[in-house]
DNA sequence: AAATGGGTCAACCGCCCTACT
DNA sequence: GAGTAGGGCGGTTGACCCATT
């Protein structure tokens, strides 16, 4: 028997619905199992990723709020590129989302900052080679990750150690963060923790809305029939990029 | 109107950790 | 304790979208 090749690339609506159904059935674990029994030609990892980053109920969509932005800054300055950890403090946001946000927004800010610094100090002397910072948080990540992935004071120590050696990126990030706080006129209070959440209504995944309204109301038997998937093609959820 | 560049986001890859045998 | 499989995580890539030239 020829083993069918594992599917890659963008998910279809049909796949999404299948995945949602089977996750609902078996829970958010055993991804390999779900991948197999669902008939999706995907890896367990792929299924998990799709669920976590896109299909999970309670996911927020849209731009980060100023509060969230500040929280990301605050937590990143504390933990570095521990995206999943940071994400846990931002209900409805995924590590991927935060990572993307950080990369685009902070890189931009770093560039602006760098430009501003180079302008203001163009007549100055301190043009150390280190000022040619890598415009990417990965540099910081490498520094912070150190030899272990364990988050701890050790990491902080490592960072400080690097800083002491004159590695400027941390200062740059700190400055960015503090200028963010200044410009917003607010200092974020770390009042958001497990168990607490933002007060605004979560914007759930559109697919979830659909499923919640229709799929999950079906009884067990109807579920088994998995509703005519072809009907679902009529359902056009906004951010699908299916060809 | 076409070209281009930057921003956004979904998805994959590879490494690491953990639980299980 | 060693080996293995599954899952989690961070980094990276590439396609799409939109604004600007």
From TrEMBL:
One of its GO terms (molecular function) is DNA-binding transcription factor activity. It is found in: Nucleus. Coiled coil: none annotated. Residues 117-161 are annotated as: Disordered. Residues 139-161 have a biased composition (Basic and acidic residues). Keywords: DNA-binding, Nucleus, Repeat, Transcription, Transcription regulation. InterPro entries: EOBI/EOBII-like_plant, Homeodomain-like_sf, Myb_dom, SANT/Myb. Residues 3-55, 56-110 form the HTH myb-type domain. Residues 117-128 have a biased composition (Low complexity). SMART domains: SANT. Residues 3-55, 56-106 form the Myb-like domain. GO terms for cellular component: nucleus. It holds the Pfam family Myb_DNA-binding. The keyword Nucleus applies. Transcription factor. This is Uncharacterized protein. It comes from Coptis chinensis.
